[in-house]
Amino acid sequence: MNVLVINAGSSSLKYQLINVESQTVLAKGLCDRVGSDEAMHKHGLDDNEVCIHTPMPDHDHAVALVLEALTSGPNKAIDSLDEIDAVGHRIVQGGKYFDRSVIIDEDVIAKIDEMAELAPLHNKAAIQGIRGCQHHMPDTPMVAVFDTSFYQSLPPKAYMYPIPYEYYEKYAIRKYGAHGTSHRYIAERAADLLEEDLQDLKLITCHLGNGCSISAVDHGMAVDTSMGLTPLDGLMMGTRCGSIDPAIVTYLMDHEGLTPAEMDDVLNKKSGLLGVSGISNDLRTVDEAAEKGDERALLAYDMYSNSAKKYIGQYIAVMGGVDCIVLTGGVGENSAKMRRMIFAGLQTMGIRLDESRNRTGPREREISTDDSEVLIVIIPTDEELMIARDTYELVHDLIDDPEIDYNPDMLLF
Ligand code: ADP
User: 233: Cβ–Cβ under 8 A, 6 or more apart, which residues?
Assistant: First the structure.
């Protein structure tokens, strides 16, 4: 079965066409700066990628361009749209409604729209992506895969905030988490790699990149996670501050005369590695400056590792132990130095990093010592494959059974 995976952002649309049985990526690409004069479409697998500047007023046009590139031209992957069996859409915020992936119907779209209040740019863009696909492939089943669904298993003591309860009732303010599809993938993959049942493991999954999150996964269920109502919470990130004393927000708004939108900009876009170093949000650039003796860059690097270390400690306490720590994301997968700093001093907790395994080896590997009580593994994440698999699971009966006349408006859930 071929699944088209669509990840629509506010001004972008990333996609992959995946054959699920063989786990092969048949084509991939990105429509960037959708809606601007500089819109650009990149399409093709690695060496064959072509980049075209082309007008794309909205996501509907972007979907049309993607479908054209998949079925025609030098980099075509399939002969016709009939070879796309289903579409899987990444949705950032499913709120309280979705604790798993679902087949998309009008009711699901209405709920995604309702939850847009919590992720305005992403959910609205996702709906445009869904509408674009419905327009161009009206008979193809579609599935919504939510970043938040993995965290619907959190107990109230983890997802509630200690603010007046009425705000939970009135605005549904609670922890929803983010990056859930990535955490779910690396948790499942780690269990496979260790040849253990996920239900038998206590895992701490760490997605460390420009955006960062850490989750506690106890016997297959997420029990806590660092991102909160929004992806601003938790760890220090590339440009996001993560958890800070909330009083800083009102203090700065007062003293700098900032509007809520301006304050939001400071916390989301001007903080983190960028804010502290004053140099970059990119860890490699910060590291280069730190190596040359830049004190703020060194401080930013230290703070990033300390932030991850503290969450690992917290989640060991939450679960009463840990069997395996899983790392992914641009930093988690690639920075041996950051990994060394995060795990330094944790030997007393039975966590021992093997320096030689840490430095080199296959992309997916174990990097703890043979005598470490806690395993440490690197797993490159693959959110698209996870979305394709969920889509497959939900629609293969529909497609394989000619007796079922698929009509998205008729499905009831
Ligand atoms: P995003 O959260 O935007 O998906 P990524 O997961 O791609 O981000 O991670 C980007 C981060 O990974 C950047 O800070 C980058 O410097 C870092 N990174 C990528 N490769 C390396 C590397 N080889 N060494 C150190 N850091 C790296």
Answer: 175, 226, 227, 242, 243
pLDDT higher than threshold 70 for residue 105: yes
Q: Token digits for 175?
A: 């922890």
Is residue 69 very low, low, confident or very high in pLDDT (cuts 50, 70, 90)? very high
H/E run at residue 27: strand 24-32
CATH topology of domain 197-381: Nucleotidyltransferase; domain 5 (3.30.420)
Would the CB of 243 count as within 6 Å of ligand 1?
Answer: no
- Does the pTM surpass 0.70? The reply is yes
Burial class of residue 65, CB neighbours in 10 A (0-12, 13-18, 19+):
buried
Q: What is the CATH number of domain 2-146+384-410?
A: 3.30.420.40
Q: Report the DSSP pairing between strands 375-378 and 324-328.
A: parallel
Report whether residue 331 contacts ligand 1, using a CB cutoff of 6 Å.
Answer: yes
- Location of each CATH 3.30.420.40 domain in the chain: 2-146+384-410, 197-381
Report the C-alpha gap between 179 and 231 in whole angstroms. Answer: 9
Residue 413, pLDDT score: 28
The CA 267 to ligand 1 mean position distance, Å, reads: 20
Ligand 1 binding pocket includes 284 (Cβ within 6 Å)? yes
| pLDDT tens, position by position, 168-212 | 999 999 999 999 999 999 999 999 999 999 999 999 999 999 999
